[in-house]
Specification:
Number of domains: 1
CATH superfamily: P-loop containing nucleotide triphosphate hydrolases
Order of helices and strands: EEHEHEEHEHEHHHE
CATH class: Alpha Beta
Largest sheet: 6 strands, parallel
Structural class: alpha/beta
Number of strands: 8
Mean pLDDT: 79
Radius of gyration: 15 Å
Distance between the termini: 5 Å
Low-confidence stretches: 1-10, 170-181
CATH topology: Rossmann fold
CATH architecture: 3-Layer(aba) Sandwich
């Protein structure tokens, strides 16, 4: 895949949260931070430096990507992006209680799961906007502190990068970042 230019942004932060602990919200938040050239805010804050090999390059003028952890939608006007891994039925049922607060939904697809995206959409009333394939390589690279160095070579995040490149977040003057995948 060749280089691409991302154009997007929002006036409020992008709040990323998972249906449950371990659903991949932190990884998605950190990767989006790197892709969009936004500051990362989350606990523990050192994690972004570890996973990416240093903080993402940002212009400091745009709101951050905020890692809100598990099941903590922002109620402050932020754009809410929910992450559902599996999709597992327990996570899906958990999201059902806050479905009206989901602005965007990402599924991390585990190939052995049988719940389909149309199933998820019918339960939540929210479209699955991007599907990221589960891969053992991502946590291995993350644990080794090499995710940032290999981000451009990971086909696992191509759909996320394409989605982010075309995503029109809440109105803004726009963010521009060059990505070479």
């Amino acid at each position: 895949m060749g280089g691409m230019e991302l154009v997007g942004g929002e006036t409020e932060p992008l709040a990323v949260w998972g249906a449950r602990g371990g659903h991949g919200a932190t990884t998605i938040a950190i990767v989006l931070s790197a892709l969009l050239g936004r500051a990362y805010q989350g606990e523990p804050s050192w994690m972004v430096g570890w996973m990416l090999g240093g903080p993402p390059t940002t212009d400091g003028a745009h709101p951050p990507i905020v890692d809100r952890g598990a099941l903590s939608p922002a109620r402050d006007g932020s754009t809410n992006l929910a992450v559902l891994r599996g999709p597992c039925l327990i996570g899906l049922r958990t999201l059902q209680d806050v479905a009206d607060e989901i602005d965007h939904l990402i599924v991390i697809r585990e190939p052995w799961r049988r719940v389909s995206n149309p199933d998820v959409e019918s339960v939540l009333g929210t479209p699955v906007e991007v599907e990221v394939p589960f891969s053992e390589r991502v946590p291995q690279l993350s644990d080794a502190g090499l995710l940032g160095a290999r981000l451009g070579a990971l086909v696992e995040f191509e759909a996320l990068a394409s989605w982010a490149a075309t995503m029109s977040f809440r109105s803004s003057p726009g963010v521009r970042a060059s990505i070479d995948l």
